[in-house]
């Protein structure tokens, strides 16, 4: 299916959210009753390609998308989440699962994986359909206002869309040396999924940003030894982390870069060099963590005809509406005009809940955006 920008401003698809218009060549969408699902356990994954029309489909299962799905359930909307990754949690799961987060209201500190677990539990109250491992590529709008989302695996039908695609599909930046590829997963890492993998090991961390400094500090009590090399003498990390690094047993080598790694079937050595003198040193290592940043690509979403803020953000108004009716955006992907985006979890939560309330109103023009208080509902 071609990726055509949405045309003709749509009337909101007729009817209340759950009176699904007949989907193409299939039975009408079953009506769910959230009040009977309050204690429901984890939702089953929804395979791609089924023809059910959802009230709202969320692109991205990061914190914004997960909380958006919870809010959709609260408003009794039939919701589906689609994510390119196999696991929910977005950046928290992919980039820093074991780090503590200190700025989520109500949690003085919480580990990323636990926040994701809690979000999933909260979201699954409503049994959202989840299509994981599918990257959304195309979007078209039918004459009846129903939108078709095309992924690498199939199609999904929906009346409204909430884009919570974060920084887009992110890929870790890699060094150009071709021989490094053979060591990926065999001692060469681009992120740390479990500190236990590094217990008792000689670890080399490469990089000078927050991730490099944080992982060096996080692993110092697990690893036998942690060495951190950085190509210059200034870190792009929080001052407090840099101070902690300087006081830690981490062996910090400034003006050093990685030339290559060696080993029989797994990483056993790293060749590093002083970029001021080009003098090389071979050090024994069991693991090399490359934290060189990420290349970010919004991908085909950029071609949907949505108004952008620069090339990185989808422009939204104060209702989280994009320039295309029925399509909302929340979290790291969106920016209001002239307001510097914060790119924080708490911002994404607020934006996702607001987006869902206005999406509800879009689907039910006579309704109020204000959802009422959850404490007054019998859930
Ligand atoms: C190391 C690090 C530490 C951080 N620490 C904090 C902190 O302490 N406090 C804080 O508030 N914030 C922190 N952040 C920022 C926080 O993680 C982000 O603000 C948050 O993850 C944004 O959530 P999101 O749901 O908008 O997007 P993301 O978490 O980026 O999730 C987006 C999801 O969308 C999916 N996706 C993208 N494109 C597509 C597509 N085309 N089709 C299908 N799926 C798609 C991705 O696979 C991803 O799962 C940190 C970030 C990093 C990198």
Tell me which ligands are bound.
Answer: flavin-adenine dinucleotide
Query: Unreliable runs, pLDDT <50, ≥5 residues?
Result: 1-9, 15-48
**What is the tally of beta strands?**
22
User: Distance between the terminal alpha carbons, to the nearest Å?
Assistant: 41 Å
C-alpha geometry = elongated
**Count of helices?**
6
Main pleated sheet: 7 strands, mixed
From N to C, what is the helix and strand string?
EHEHEEHEEEEEEEHEHEEEEEEEEEEH
Structural class: alpha/beta
Which secondary structure elements does this structure contain, and how are they paired or packed?
Layout: E1 53-59, H1 63-74, E2 79-83, H2 91-94, E3 100-101, E4 110-111, H3 112-123, E5 129-132, E6 136-141, E7 147-151, E8 155-163, E9 169-172, E10 188-189, E11 202-206, H4 210-219, E12 225-230, H5 239-247, E13 251-254, E14 256-262, E15 269-274, E16 280-284, E17 287-290, E18 294-297, E19 308-309, E20 313-316, E21 327-329, E22 334-336, H6 345-363
Parallel strand pairs: 1-2, 1-8, 2-5, 8-21, 10-17, 11-12, 11-17, 12-13, 20-22
Antiparallel strand pairs: 3-4, 6-7, 7-8, 9-18, 14-15, 15-16, 19-20
Helix pairs in contact: 1-3, 1-6, 4-5
The structure holds flavin-adenine dinucleotide.
Flavin-adenine dinucleotide (FAD) binds at residues 59-65, 82-85, 90-92, 95-96, 101, 103, 135-136, 164-169, 210-211, 299, 301, 331-333, 343-346, 348.
């Amino acid at each position: 299916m071609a990726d055509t920008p949405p045309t003709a401003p749509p009337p909101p698809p007729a009817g209340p959210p759950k009176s699904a218009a007949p989907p193409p060549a299939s039975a009408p969408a079953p009506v769910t009753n959230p009040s009977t699902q309050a204690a429901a356990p984890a939702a089953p994954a929804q395979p791609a390609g089924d023809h059910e029309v959802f009230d709202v489909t969320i692109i991205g299962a990061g914190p914004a998308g997960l909380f958006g799905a919870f809010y959709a359930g609260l408003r009794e909307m039939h919701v589906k989440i689609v994510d390119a990754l196999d696991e929910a949690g977005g950046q928290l799961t992919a980039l820093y699962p074991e780090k503590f987060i200190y700025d989520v209201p109500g949690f003085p500190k919480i580990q990323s994986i636990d926040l994701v677990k809690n979000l999933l539990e909260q979201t699954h109250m409503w049994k959202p359909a989840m299509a994981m491992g599918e990257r959304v590529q195309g979007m078209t709008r039918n004459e009846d206002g129903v939108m078709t989302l095309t992924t690498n695996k199939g199609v999904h039908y929906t009346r409204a869309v909430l884009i919570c695609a974060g920084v887009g599909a992110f890929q870790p930046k890699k060094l150009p040396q071709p021989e490094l590829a053979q060591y990926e997963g065999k001692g060469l890492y681009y992120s740390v999924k479990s500190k236990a993998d590094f217990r008792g090991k000689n670890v080399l961390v490469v990089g000078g940003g927050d991730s490099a400094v944080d992982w060096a500090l996080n692993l110092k009590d697990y690893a036998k030894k942690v060495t951190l090399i950085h190509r210059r003498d200034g870190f792009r990390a929080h001052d407090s982390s840099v101070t902690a690094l300087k006081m830690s047993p981490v062996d910090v080598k400034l003006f050093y870069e990685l030339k290559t790694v060696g080993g029989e079937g797994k990483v056993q050595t790293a060749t590093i060099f002083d970029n001021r003198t080009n003098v090389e040193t071979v050090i024994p290592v069991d693991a090399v963590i490359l934290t060189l940043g990420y290349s970010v690509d919004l991908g085909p979403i950029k071609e949907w005809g949505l108004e952008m803020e620069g090339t990185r953000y989808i422009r939204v108004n104060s209702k989280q509406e994009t320039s295309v009716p029925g399509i909302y955006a929340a979290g790291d992907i969106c920016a209001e005009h002239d307001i510097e985006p914060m790119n924080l979890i708490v911002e994404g939560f607020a934006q996702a809940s607001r987006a869902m309330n206005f999406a509800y109103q879009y689907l039910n023009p006579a309704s109020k955006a204000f959802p009422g208080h959850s404490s007054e509902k019998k859930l």
